[in-house]
Amino acid sequence: MDKKFKRTTVTSALPYANGPVHIGHLAGVYVPADIYVRYLRLKKEEVLFIGGSDEHGVPITIRAKKEGITPQDVVDRYHTLIRDSFKEFGISFDVYGRTSSEIHRQTASEFFRTLYDKGEFIEKTSMQYYDEEAQTFLADRYITGECPHCHAEGAYGDQCEKCGTSLSPTDLINPKSAISGSKPVMRETKHWYLPLDKHEGWLRQWILEDHKEWRNNVYGQCKSWLDMGLQPRAVSRDLDWGIPVPVEGAEGKVLYVWFDAPIGYISNTKELLPDSWEKWWKDPESRLVHFIGKDNIVFHCIVFPAMLKAEGSYILPDNVPSNEFLNLEGDKISTSRNWAVWLHEYLRDFEGKQDVLRYVLTANAPETKDNDFTWKDFQARNNNELVAVYGNFVNRALQLTQKYYNGVVPACGELTEYDQATLDEFKDVKVKVEELLDNFKFRDAQKEAMNLARIGNKYIADCEPWKVIKTDPERVKTIIYISLQLTANLAIAFEPFLPFSSEKLRHILNMETFEWAQLGNTNLLQEGHQLNQPELLFEKIEDAVIEAQVQKLLDTKKANEEANYKAEPIKENIPFEDFEKLDIRVGTVLECTKVPKADKLLCFKIADGLENRTIVSGIAKYYKPEDLVGKQVCFIANLAPRKLKGIESQGMILSAVNHDGSLSVITPEKEVKPGSCVG
Prior knowledge:
Elements: E1 7-12, H1 23-42, E2 46-53, H2 58-67, H3 71-89, E3 95-98, H4 102-117, E4 122-131, E5 136-137, E6 143-146, E7 155-156, E8 173-177, E9 185-194, H5 200-209, H6 216-228, E10 233-234, E11 236-238, E12 253-255, H7 257-272, H8 278-282, E13 286-291, H9 297-311, E14 326-328, E15 331-332, H10 343-349, H11 354-363, E16 371-373, H12 375-405, H13 417-427, H14 429-438, H15 442-463, H16 465-468, H17 473-493, H18 499-509, H19 543-564, H20 576-580, E17 584-594, E18 602-607, E19 613-617, H21 625-628, E20 632-636, E21 642-644, E22 647-649, E23 652-653, E24 655-657, E25 663-665, E26 677-678
Parallel strand pairs: 1-2, 1-13, 2-3, 14-16
Antiparallel strand pairs: 4-5, 4-9, 6-7, 6-8, 9-10, 11-12, 14-15, 17-18, 17-20, 17-26, 18-19, 20-23, 21-22, 24-25
Helix pairs in contact: 2-3, 4-7, 5-6, 6-9, 11-12, 12-15, 12-17, 13-15, 14-15, 15-17, 17-18
């Protein structure tokens, strides 16, 4: 850390209290933030970790209306769920507040009023949709209609959920109010705007010249916005849920959630430290670091700094280490589709395995590009790395100490060349891990910590103390001594990443002191030091457990497909005479075989009541040939024959296309004579 800073204020993006937290949130924001804070605490540095729930905005009011409850009911439910899940998962906030609190209302109102009184806002009138029946202006999400791009019904005024296109309410075809269902009209409304264009000059210097060390994705997105030219941004909106705009003539208007939410970092600090909060936000010797996802880069690097600068007394962020997105099993995580691994469900399904998820999410951290979480990888990293490398080495070292020396650290004898080489190799781990953590490279830092376990595993495997004990018991004392020093170092190195297993290991080792400065010390456990009883740090995760999680996702996908299924539009009407031309009959399947070199085709021999006929059908993906023999099927008997893979097909077997694209052969409810007509 730069010497000019005495302390660090760390914030993590406020999760939206409209639903639970999922692994995408954890990987993008909360796990890396917690790693960094735990690292600073281990270094005995002054650090404050600020979290809280974002509880205003339109989606919350929509959920409340759907459920027939109040917005406060919604945020109370999810704030509690999120807060408790974070606590159980080990996200070590110093305070976890909420934006519906009275202290936040006061702080946000005062912040707005300060900027208002300084003339930092501009007033603008615009035309917006108004619901005459409900007598209210409509936020973008309260307007639905037909998407002008994919023509899906039910697109929102800000985005089409089906094709993902960003929209404006006026883009919608046949817009209607989501409140009353009536057609909205355009009306004039007044709002206050933060003129970001006024701040563009200093923002360009501050970001593009003074902070070239920021991550490429952060720097690049900021540069793109600045190069396009910044525009005034509304800080108020017409809504009845939120913090009322604290000026006369603003009835029915609240602070826009993007303006209100980041002030939550400040109000939550006030809640924790009412008498000393200012030193964390206004002292130039304090460092401000925001942990966010990439969808929040603009707000934390351009908009919030402009707000702080306009107010005039606050420090600006020193770094904003934003991650990219984490996908799930090759598909984008989606809360609306329930395509996610929810934290509260993970804590229930994998009791006591917080560190396994922390490890996997850090190992797959989307630091430079989007990454993917799969349950098979989760299992493999647990079994092949945590259990087979870290856990295996620690367990060997502890069990051998217990077996040979009753859990007492033995004396270290004369070192061999190999002993010294091993000690030299892990002495540098502190410098390596520290440099990586200081530069927010958490994935590589954890990998370096795991390399320490690999060194230990190799050392104890190469030295084979269980064999040497028979010929040179004095040599074994040195092997075990060195192995225990490595083990103690692992407890420190992994503390920021795996706090639960580190705490467990420190208890087993009976470590009295514990801080970052000790990492790399090869004499952490003194000769004669008594250890506690060994325990396994990690356990294997069996296939059945993983298969259950995969099946849960498959069930979710199937449910989504069924819920979103919409039948194909009815084709144009045809004269009855055209239908009469079709000769649809029932036949009995006598034989059915796969067509060679054709994955999709089956060849049927059909009894049609007159003479047997051959029909080729593309349903091999959905049926085994032997399952169809003896069944009755409907077929078109008077189609002109055509050749498929050299076989003349004399008709078409009728199938229904399901919502997932699968085919189901049409069969009569009761058995009928072959050749019976369908009409």
